[in-house]
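To assess whether the prediction recovers the assembly geometry, we first specified each molecular entity separately, as shown.
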Amino acid sequence: MLKVSLGMSVREFTTVVREHVGGRMKSKFAVIFAAMLIPLSLLSIALSENLNNLLVFYDQIGLIFILAPCIGCAYFLNKANGQHWQETFLALGVPLSLIAAYQSAIVL
Amino acid sequence: MLLVVLYGGVIGAMGYPALHRKQSSKKKHANKRFIVISLVLVLSATYLNMRLLIGMNNIGIPILDFFDISLFLIFGLLISSFLLMNRKERHWSVVVSDAALYASIITVVLALIYWFMAIGADPDSSMILDPILYASQSMYLGSIIYVITYIASLGADTDDRIDVGKMNWHLIEANAFLLYSCFCATIDWRVYKFIEWELCARRNNRGLNS
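The predicted structure of the complete assembly is given in tokenized form:
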């Protein structure tokens, strides 16, 4: 039970909330939500900077090329040895993006 | 090109909590079938993207033009020498990924040296694009080798794993180095010309005075 009173200082309040929420943060939904905050923050930056032309940040082929192998590998590697999807995303995100980027650079 | 790197960075950042976590692998012996499927998935996505880019840009280059024979030689030699030097201390996957990274960085630096020489000789020549193409092919090959090695290493029964955080950092570093060097030199070319002209004038003055 979360015990919060009006007489608490900010420090006490944050300590109580952290202790209360800390245990729940390990749940899958909390982890996915925390991970989703990163693209959402980027989207908010894009919206604030370039509201009229959001499409300049959109590259359909690049997005599909990065997401499809990442999600597929996250699924299959989890089946293979129980690897968490975050480990797969961390390991494959950057090199796959470089592969796609240099493919387009070579073609250009 | 830069947008794709941004997407990759975001996806990598989504996996950031895994960086300071212990290996989550629960099974002692990995199911190799799924690892092969993952490898096929990544390689077929790479191949499809190549075909798509060629089709979209209406150019008739063969797939082999994405690679350079000399790069295979350099990468092969470096990986072989690293394996010979470290085969007892480290797992092969760590050694191969490190060697691919070193080979990428070395060839990028070599290409940039050649690029600066070419741009100094004739800034309007189409030859100045060749070193950039070579450096791009090098980073491309290095990234492919790293991805294949990483996925293949998950099937091995060892505790000596690739440090993905370090590898990501170095890959981004090499990429930023290449991009920055190319763009920076192109933008500031007039400044370089001016410096060269100044130095020549001072040298001539010194010659006249003495």
